[in-house]
Each structure stands twice: as structure tokens, then as C-alpha cells.
């Protein structure tokens, strides 16, 4: 392997390029028109334009990738994750073109690419699978009958793809048909395949996955497990390795089951076998029962935590195995050291249901003490065309508590301006006492939603830290800037304001900051970030802005759902509009469905009322913030 083309973009392309360069392998980047100035393009030795911004016209076209490989003389292709990474036809085409595909065989991808066939294969191999329906008959009557047999609650899952797309929990029979049709539409849009499967919905699950590697010489090993249970809308938020709270016996059995799964399909290269643990159903030893969920036939987004605890470069392993080499290490030589945690920093708004945020990264700086895997830079754009990930923030330490503390500190000191991010939410999540204490399952975020989103007044130590930083950057002004005291050093009276107009008065003295005449020590765990017109104090995910001038907050809010104005939460296509002027609606009724970033977003009525106006139509492309529907509350004049 002399020249490697990376059939991907963003942070994973940058990640692969770093390892290839260290190994002395030349690299080729591919890019769309939207990514002409992206970091992965600048990092590679060569770069080839492959099409317009939409992925379906660029990164998802195998012929464009192969054409770029031929034009640059690349002899190998690494697919990264996402896009074509689990496309069996692409893997086959790469090999038929005489190139090395850095990944498994197309046969393995085909078997594991559809969740129903994968479960059938695993069941035959003796790996436990979740009870459910995996049949070819996808007719509504058949699926309704099988749902009745499985019982509610159950889970509808697209048989192709992942990332929560095409997945719907159903808690009652009345919800089934609408959830099924929505899952099928989303699956077809995301994966070109609308097939679904039904399975028992486990009430309190943990999501634990095992990293495996196989070579062409018949060897398969595992590199321990990761816990990916902290999720929202079935998408991972924080991952860690090893999985906390598991017995040594359960870890051992999970590793054996994952390796068994690999041998069952003659697996080569990197793969992840994902299991679901039923925390409400335990065996005689007290360990939760586990079931095979799916296998990802590629490198995972969360692979850095495995690298951290094993000291191994998984991309290097991939490349060596693709070149025909044996595994770098056999099972007995693979060791686990310490604990690692990864948080996915996204351009998204937690206060608006985690909807993606777009814009220019006017300021971007990361906190110290963490590994940062990113594919963006200050001045770059976060667009609607691709996944809105900004970076992966990874910390490693001897213990889990230390790794989490380092992660919170790094997030508190990370600065992103120009787009809204989940930075504060991630820090609050990683610092949450229940999570730190080991309470982990996929329902954690929903269960602790109130505490994860509630805001608290700034404690005295935070006020003191903010005041000290503010004072250092703001010179005393005016004829009464200093107040002299008999036989005591002079002090400077000062004040700053929170965004809601709350005033904080203090004095700046040689021995520190005084609130109400008493010195207060600044909190050591408080990060202070300079902002325009003041400072921002951060502590364990909570943020407080202190401004040098009273913002004059009047308590008014912009028009929105509470006023009956239903706005588009982001740019997208209005694929469904279910009301017309004069219709009566009740709180929670479906008004419209917006498709954006291959996900469907359901817009509902915020209160009982009447539709006054409809400002768009089904099929229309709408902009962020565009008015779609106007409602009048029940009892109000139209």
C-alpha cells in the first residue's frame, strides 16, 4: 500500500490521514464543493473534487470515488465511517478494480448490513438475540399481527443502517401504524431500503459493544468493551471504555460472544459487535442477560476510547490487516489500562430538542487535557449538508472518576461561537451525580431531563472568579473609582449584570474580591471565558454571563409556539402538512412533519385551539425560522 484514498470527510478523514502519514503512506482526499476549504483537504497530499455539496451527488457515488482513485494512482481506499463504509457493492467494486479495500469482505458486510439476516446468522451461531420478528413479509397486516404476538411495548427498527434512523418505540397498538410508516419513510430516505423488523422493547437497557479485529489468517481478537448507553433519540452522546459496573465474568462472556460472531462470518478487519443488556432480567449470578443487537462492519465513531485504554492505533491495525499482515497482537497480549471517556460535541441546540445549528465558526478553541478529534477549524462552516459534529473530546485517566473530571474540565474550557452547541449539556451530563455514581442505561437522559436542563444561580465562588477576571480586564473609571478607608488599602467599587438584568455589586481590594464586605475565594473549578462586553463563567456545564453594562432586559420574548406561531426549527423539506385554516386542534396534535438531515421532525400543537393560517405547503423547502402555521388559543377570537 503506497497511496491511500480516504472516501470520507471531516474528523474521520483527518484521523486516517494522521496515521497514514506516520506509516509513510501518501494520502488522497476527496471533497465536495462545500468542502473545498475543509481541513481534511488541506491535510492530504492530494485532493480531488467529486461533486456538489449534497452527499448523494458526491460522497455517496462509488463511481466518483473510484474515478478519483484511478486519476491519482491510489492503490487502496479507506471508507471511514458513514457514507459508503458499509456499502457491500462499493467494497466489491473497489476490489474488482484491483484496489485494496480497508475493511471487511463484501460478503460480511452483506450478512451484517441487514439486521434481520444478521440476527438469523447469530442465532445459528449460538449468540443470544432479542425476541422479535425478522421476516420478509413486510405487509401491514403481517406486521400488525406480529406486533400483537410480541406484545407492547416493542421497537420498530430499520433492517438497514443505524444511528437511530428508521427506529421507533411503540407503547400501544394505537400508535403502531403511524410509527411504522414514519420508520419506513425514514429508512428509505436514509438507506434506500424501507424494510423493518420488530423486537421486544427492553425497558431498562444498557448498550455495550465489543471491538473485534480479524485478519486473513483466521485470527480474531477483541479489544474489550465500550459502554454507549448515554443516548438521546437512539444516538450516542457519551461513550466510555471499559464499560463500568460489569462483573469480570460478564466481560469475559461478552468478549467470547463477540469473537464467536466474528468467526461465524469469517470476519476480517475492524468490526464492532453491539449487545443490549437487560438490567431488569438477570441470570443466577446476578448479571444482566444480554442479546446481540447488530454488528457495525467498520470503524466506530467512538474508537478513540478503545485506543486510549489499549494504547493501540486502530487505524494502523486496519491498514496492516488490509495489507495481508497478521494481527499486531494476539488476545493474551492485549491489555486494558485505566478508563477513557468520549463526548460528541455537536452544533445543535439542546433547548430546541437537539435540532442542528448551522453557521460560521467565528471562534473555536478547545480545553486542555483532552484528545481532540475534529474536522473543522475556526472560520469554517457548519452546513445543512452533513453531520453537525464539531469534535470528539476524549479523556483518559487511571480511574473513571478522574477521566470524567478531566472531561468536564475540558468541556468547560472549550469555546465555540457562531453556532449553538451541546457543550454545556455534555459537561452537565458527565458531571451528573447519578452518572458519576454508575447509574447507566439508555433512558438516563430522559429520566434526568429536569436536572440536566435546569439553571442555577451563580454560587459565591463563581461570582468571585468572574469578578476577579472581569476586574483584571476592566480598569477602574470615574472620579469615585477608588474608595479610601482609614488605615486600610483603598478598594474599587464595581458591578456587573447577568443577561436577565440581575446586578452583582462588589469591591476590588488588594486582597481579592469582596462581596458585601467579605472576601470570597474564587472557585478553582470555574473556567472564565472572555466574551464581548464581559466574561462567561463555567462550572460543571453551568454557564453564567456577566456583562459590564446592564442589558436592560424587559422580560419580553420573541413570537413562538406559546404565541401560536409554529416556525420551522431548521432548514428542510416539509414532507407533511396535516391542517388547514379553520381546523380545530388539541395540544399535541400533529401539524406538520419536516425532513432535515435525513431525519423527520414532528411539529405539534402547543395548546388547544384553531388554525388561523397555513403559510406553506407539503413538499416545499423551508428556511430556518420560517412561519408555517398560526394558531389561536381555544376561546380567543380568530
UniProtKB/TrEMBL annotation:
PROSITE patterns (UniProt xref): ATP_GRASP, BC, BIOTIN, BIOTINYL_LIPOYL, CPSASE_2
Residues annotated as domain ATP-grasp: 119-323
Reported cofactor(s): biotin
Origin: domain of life: Bacteria
Domain Lipoyl-binding: 551-632
SMART domains given in the database record: Biotin_carb_C
A GO MF term: ligase activity
Keyword line: ATP-binding, Biotin, Ligase, Nucleotide-binding, Transit peptide
Domain Biotin carboxylation: 1-450
ATP-binding listed as a keyword: yes
PANTHER family named among the record's database cross-references: CARBOXYLASE:PYRUVATE/ACETYL-COA/PROPIONYL-COA CARBOXYLASE, METHYLCROTONOYL-COA CARBOXYLASE SUBUNIT ALPHA, MITOCHONDRIAL-RELATED
Protein name: Acetyl/propionyl/methylcrotonyl-CoA carboxylase subunit alpha
Amino acid at each position: 500500500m503506497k497511496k491511500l484514498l480516504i472516501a470520507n470527510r471531516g474528523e474521520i478523514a483527518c484521523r486516517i490521514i494522521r496515521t497514514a502519514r506516520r506509516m509513510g503512506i501518501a494520502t488522497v482526499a476527496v471533497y465536495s464543493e462545500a468542502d473545498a476549504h475543509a481541513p481534511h483537504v488541506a491535510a492530504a497530499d492530494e485532493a480531488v473534487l467529486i461533486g456538489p455539496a449534497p452527499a448523494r451527488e458526491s460522497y455517496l457515488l462509488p463511481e466518483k470515488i473510484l474515478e478519483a482513485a484511478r486519476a491519482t494512482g491510489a492503490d487502496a481506499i479507506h471508507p471511514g465511517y458513514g457514507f459508503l463504509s458499509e456499502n457491500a457493492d462499493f467494497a466489491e467494486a473497489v476490489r474488482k478494480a484491483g484496489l485494496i479495500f480497508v475493511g471487511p469482505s463484501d460478503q460480511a458486510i452483506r450478512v451484517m448490513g441487514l439486521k434481520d439476516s444478521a440476527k438469523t446468522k447469530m442465532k445459528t451461531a449460538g449468540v443470544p438475540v432479542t425476541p422479535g420478528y425478522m421476516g420478509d413479509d413486510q405487509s401491514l397486516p403481517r406486521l400488525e399481527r406480529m406486533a400483537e404476538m410480541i406484545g407492547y411495548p416493542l421497537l420498530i427498527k430499520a433492517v438497514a443502517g443505524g444511528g437511530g434512523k428508521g427506529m421507533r418505540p411503540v407503547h400501544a397498538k394505537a400508535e403502531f401504524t403511524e410509527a411504522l410508516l414514519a420508520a419506513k419513510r425514514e429508512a428509505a430516505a436514509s438507506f434506500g431500503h424501507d424494510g423493518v423488523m420488530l423486537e421486544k422493547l427492553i425497558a431498562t437497557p444498557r448498550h455495550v459493544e465489543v471491538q473485534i479485529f480479524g485478519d486473513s489468517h483466521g485470527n480474531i481478537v477483541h479489544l474489550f468493551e465500550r459502554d454507549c448507553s448515554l443516548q438521546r433519540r437512539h444516538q450516542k452522546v457519551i461513550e466510555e471504555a471499559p464499560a463500568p459496573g460489569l462483573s469480570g465474568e460478564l466481560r469475559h462472556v461478552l468478549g467470547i460472544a463477540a469473537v464467536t460472531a466474528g468467526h461465524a462470518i469469517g470476519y476480517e478487519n475492524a468490526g464492532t459487535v453491539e449487545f443490549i443488556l437487560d438490567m431488569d432480567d438477570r441470570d443466577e449470578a446476578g448479571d444482566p442477560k444480554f442479546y446481540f443487537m447488530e454488528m457495525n462492519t467498520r470503524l466506530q465513531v467512538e474508537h478513540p476510547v478503545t485506543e486510549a485504554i489499549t494504547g493501540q492505533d486502530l487505524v494502523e491495525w486496519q491498514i496492516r490487516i488490509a495489507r495481508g499482515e497478521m494481527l499486531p497482537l494476539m488476545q493474551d497480549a492485549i491489555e486494558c489500562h485505566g478508563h477513557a471517556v468520549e463526548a460528541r460535541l455537536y452544533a445543535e441546540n439542546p433547548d430546541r430538542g437537539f435540532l442542528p445549528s448551522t453557521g460560521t465558526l467565528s471562534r473555536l478553541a478547545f480545553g486542555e487535557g483532552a484528545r481532540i478529534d475534529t474536522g473543522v477549524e475556526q472560520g469554517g462552516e457548519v452546513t445543512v449538508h452533513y453531520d453537525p459534529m464539531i469534535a470528539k473530546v476524549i479523556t483518559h485517566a487511571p480511574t473513571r472518576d478522574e477521566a470524567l473530571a478531566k472531561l468536564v474540565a475540558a468541556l468547560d474550557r472549550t469555546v465555540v461561537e457562531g453556532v449553538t452547541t451541546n457543550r454545556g449539556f455534555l459537561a452537565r451530563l458527565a458531571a451528573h451525580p447519578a452518572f458519576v455514581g454508575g447509574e447507566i442505561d439508555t433512558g438516563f437522559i430522559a429520566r434526568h431531563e429536569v436536572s440536566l436542563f435546569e439553571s442555577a444561580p451563580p454560587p459565591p465562588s463563581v461570582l468571585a472568579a468572574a469578578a476577579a477576571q472581569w476586574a483584571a480586564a476592566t480598569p477602574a473609571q470615574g472620579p469615585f473609582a477608588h474608595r479610601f478607608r482609614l488605615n486600610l488599602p483603598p478598594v474599587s467599587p464595581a458591578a456587573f449584570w447577568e443577561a436577565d438584568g440581575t446586578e452583582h455589586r462588589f469591591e476590588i481590594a488588594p486582597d481579592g474580591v469582596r462581596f458585601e464586605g467579605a472576601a470570597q475565594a474564587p472557585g478553582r473549578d470555574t473556567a472564565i471565558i472572555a466574551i464581548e462586553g464581559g466574561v462567561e463563567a463555567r462550572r460543571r456545564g453551568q454557564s453564567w454571563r456577566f456583562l459590564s453594562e446592564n442589558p436592560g432586559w424587559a422580560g419580553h420574548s420573541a413570537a413562538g409556539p406559546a404565541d401560536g406561531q409554529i416556525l420551522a426549527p431548521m432548514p428542510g423539506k416539509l414532507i407533511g402538512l396535516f391542517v388547514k385554516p379553520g381546523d380545530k386542534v388539541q395540544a399535541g396534535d400533529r401539524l406538520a412533519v419536516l425532513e432535515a438531515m435525513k431525519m423527520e421532525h414532528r411539529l405539534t400543537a402547543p395548546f388547544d385551539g384553531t388554525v388561523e393560517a397555513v403559510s406553506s405547503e407539503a413538499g416545499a423547502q423551508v428556511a430556518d425560522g420560517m412561519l408555517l402555521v398560526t394558531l389561536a388559543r381555544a376561546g380567543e377570537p380568530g
